[in-house]
What does this fold into?
Amino acid sequence: MKIRVGLGFDVHPLESGRDFFLGGIKLPSEKGAVGHSDADVLIHAICDALLGAANLRDIGFHFSNTDERWKGKDSKYFLKEVTTMLAAKGWKIENVDCTVVLEKPKINPHIEEMKNVLAPLMNVEVDDVSIKATTNERLGYVGREEGANAYAVALISRII
Ligand code: MG
It folds into this structure.
């Protein structure tokens, strides 16, 4: 068996009056993330972790932010597509572990729902998806509530 690990990182600006999609759900929030697609910073980090583990480039390579097809696109589509790309190469997703960094809103009450939404898109058990949350202790752009960061690692395996 071959196993590989991958790392993903993403950032999106936050602006007032925008919908905030995170982890595949819409969060109640005064501010929302800005981007070409639905700007789901957590799903984008997970996609990059999975693509990195399989050495399949990155999310921007496959879903360019200048392509009209992806304007306002639900990022759950990207995660499902990435899972399909990995499966086509024989890769099985073992687990993903993520950290979202933002000041507001608090996401802990929504983590179970996010895990339940994301796990089937990756063909894994809910227990194979870990989502953690932290603030940036009011430091920098995240601390000023101008943006959100997300980090993810993924482990994948393949029978050689
Ligand atoms: Mg992104």
In short: The mean pLDDT is 97.
